[in-house]
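Same chain as my last thread, 224 residues:
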Amino acid sequence: MVSIIIPAYNEEAKIKDTIEGIKDLSCINEIIVVDDGSSDNTFEIASSYEAVKTYKLDKNMGKGYALNYGLKIAMKNSDVIGFLDADLGKTSREVEKLIYPILNNECDVTIAKFPPAKKKGGFGFVKKLAKSGVKFLTGEELDSTLSGQRVFKKEVLKEFNEIPFGYGVEVGMTIDIINKGYKIKEVLVNMTHNETGRNLKGFIHRGKQFYHINIILIKKILRS
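reply #2:
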């Protein structure tokens, strides 16, 4: 039983294509869309699909809350659970590349490795910090520790009371998964989604990421 959880906030422009990309994949048994209090037509579009279980939160609670809401539903019956962003469009279909290594028991967790960004973003400081932090604390060298497109065996998710998403928390979760003895595999996918550019908004976002990843790494170093 494979479930895919899609948290969505004001994604009326992309949610239809994102669902279209995965709704006919034979390896997926359940699609759960959690509308995070959108003010547009995201919920109406998602709920128009009979094959999609759609839920709407009363107000915007953040991606982490929406994911955990969906996770409580998926954990009841699923053996394999994946997280996808709502803005992937039809490239969401690439998630099957993340699912099959789990089904074939090649690993316990897969993480999507995106192709190089089409537009200039930051200067790579956040990515380098995340990569070096994971290497220092686990000995493993991963390139995509910031990616939110992931598929898990249920037993891995049971290790966490809830999924702590936020700026850079994926990095902390990756470290915990490896140190608990689970195997992570990065999979190259041809996915695309909204990118943060080299502008004020983009630099503020990356600054927050850098700060929070630093805090997480310092805490884990002090505990080790």
